[in-house]
Amino acid sequence: MDLHRPETPVIGIHASPAARLTPNAIGARDDTVIGLANAAPAVSVGLTLAALAAASAYGSGPIILITAIPMLIISNAYRQLNKWNANCGASFEWVGRAISPYLGFVTGWLMVAATVIGTVSCVDNLGPSVLAVFGSSNPTSTWPDIAIGTTVCLVMLLTAIAGIRITARTQVGMAVVEYVILLGFAVAGLLFVLLRHPGTVPIGRGWISLTGMNGHGNAAAGFLIAVFLYTGWDGALYVNEEVTSRNRNPGRAGIMAVALLAIIYTVSEVGLQGIVSPDKLQAHSSSALVYVAQALAGSTGGRLMALALALSVTATCGAGIVLTARIICGMAGAVEFPGLLRPGTRHGTPVAASVIVGLLVIILTWVYLLATSVQGAFTAAVNVTGMLFASFYILTALATVIYFRRRLARPADALFLGILPLGAAGFLGWIVVQSLAAASAAEIWSVVGVAAVGFCLMLTSRFALRSPYFRVRRETGAADPGSPSVNKR
Hints:
Amino acid/polyamine transporter I; two-stranded antiparallel sheet; disordered N terminus
């Protein structure tokens, strides 16, 4: 079977050669860890700890758990669509074949843009984390940060080229250390607060309420932050062609990644938010994790937490290179991008695409750290990354409803393939609207810029490259789950 083309190609169009990604290379556990790495748990907690505590008035636990519900629904939508077509292009392929190839291309571009921007934003913070592990820093010079970020990117690029097996093993090793440190400090922090150490925030009913302590929490603001926390779990689906039982395990891994993120985030945010006073937490919001770890265990605790952050960034960098390369391959096979972006026979991995993504991350990191004039624009782009993820999650949910619409007469399918995906898409749509309403002018222009670049690439593919992808037939699932899909004009 051709893994980068629609299973039913357009009549008269020559099918591309079979993909050569390594089949059955990793299992569901490894795939789950890759999805977790793409979400960058330690980095995400560090970025949101102070903001979520303030927005929710320490009611972060309920906010995070409730946000997990639509994310689990969306991940189940991914699972159902992956049963139909396990392609590393994932939502690009699904939306394109179920709704419209033009919308599918937009979806693929959003996936690439969101993953690259998210990866670069993490790498920019790698240098300070690594230096903090060794108890040294030089805030007046960016060259140590550049050297560390570049070195780590190159190492993770070489790991990606070596193949998905070594990538998965590396990710598992880093994840074990990262999560043990993060959750260990979170549990210790919760005990620290329960024992009412001086300067801590006492636990009250507000900690389990959507309105927070004394009703001062803003649930809407909390949900905006919580959605950002979860983004990235979908990475488990972009290596689906290399996972055992490719039509089943990647979908399960996506659901498992969301469930584990819910546990990690709830324990971490709740366990760490009350260690220091609200004023001190907000004053150290940019380095909240290291600061609270130091409050618990002194300089040694701070260095351990810095290690967890460094591992989280490194894992995200590796996952970003691996996953973006596979998304590009999924698009290249269908849209007729240059053949060098497709998987090669020698390495069983998309070498050229991996190199392009790795070098792009390094270049953007250098530009950000050296060209202070663009830092504001890049920060604005980072701030809208959550909206980019939410947008293609919404499109994927809609593709689920549209593709499986013939099965919605059945009560169970109506619920899980219709009502729930639409509800989750509605929730995320509300998040996007709220985010745009609160966005600055620079952030709105960032959204416009991402959309404009994607539109130009789509026009180039459609009219300059004359891609046959834009003439694929729409498909819809049969009313009987055991029957093949139906082609439509």
